[in-house]
Amino acid sequence: MTMISLEAVGFCAHYSEQGDWAFQYALGLAQQLSLSLNVFHFLSDPYVSNDQSAVSLTDEERNRLIIEREKKMRLYYDSRAGDYLNVGFRLCEDTEWIELHKCLMKKEFQVLVLGYTSHEAQFAGKPIQDFCNAFVSPVVLVGPERSNQYRLNKPAALIVDKLGLSTLHWEPVTPAAHAVQPGPSQLFA
């Protein structure tokens, strides 16, 4: 079996309590392992189904939106990163998994961290659980009820030690069709 080498952590920006929890986990992992932390943000919010807010903009409106969102994101996450300087920011223009997959292929991250805002949360136009289970790299969901609530897709469960979660309570990501309210931890067999 090939072992994954971690060089960078990816985090998808989300301005919510769960997004803050996910950022703190991603930042802590990056600091602990001396990795880069890359914060991805989007013109169309991938957490909102069929967000078309940036689709019909003129070039001038689109450029203004990019600048506004970039400024907001940097102010928000720079203060949360504190003294940790190995943090990068990247605009993703595609709300689908394709953009994140491109970033993965460019080695901008090897593990992706997402805020799990609710059990009904959407990401890239599908239930967030389905996105996580279909994505090819390790994905860690943080939340939705607590900051120390972690759900891992199968690739993430294979590197649970590297993710610093082997001694903590975590659960596998349950497909949306089979999602149940939180219960006791179920580990992969």
Give me the secondary-structure topology.
Elements: E1 8-12, H1 17-33, E2 36-42, H2 59-81, E3 87-92, H3 97-105, E4 111-115, E5 122-123, E6 126-127, H4 128-134, E7 139-142, E8 150-152, H5 154-158, E9 170-172
Parallel strand pairs: 1-2, 1-4, 2-3, 4-7, 8-9
Antiparallel strand pairs: 5-6, 7-8
Description:
With 189 residues, this protein is α/β, with parallel strands linked by helices. The chain has a single domain, classed as 3-Layer(aba) Sandwich (Rossmann fold). 32% of the residues lie in helices and 20% in strands. It contains five helices and nine strands; from the N terminus they run E-H-E-H-E-H-E-E-E-H-E-E-H-E. The chain has a seven-stranded mixed β-sheet. A hairpin with a 7-residue loop joins strand 7 (139-142) and strand 8 (150-152). The longest helix is centred in the middle third of the chain and has 23 residues, at 59-81. The protein is globular and about 50 Å long.
For the largest beta-sheet, the strand count, sense and barrel status come to:
7 strands, mixed
Give the strand order of the largest sheet, numbering strands 1, 2, ... along the chain.
3-2-1-4-7-8-9
* Rg on CA atoms, Å: 16 Å
What fraction, in percent, of the residue positions are helical? Answer: 25-40%
Low-pLDDT regions:
179-189
Number of helices: 5
Compute the average pLDDT.
88
Number of strands: 9
SSE class: alpha/beta
Order of helices and strands: EHEHEHEEEHEEHE
Can you tell me the CATH topology? Rossmann fold
| Superfamily (CATH H level) name | HUPs
CATH class: Alpha Beta
Question: In one word, what is the shape?
Answer: globular
Q: What is the distance, rounded to the nearest whole angstrom, between the alpha carbons of the first and last residues? A: 17 Å
| Tally of structural domains | 1
| CATH-scheme architecture | 3-Layer(aba) Sandwich
Strand content: 15-25%
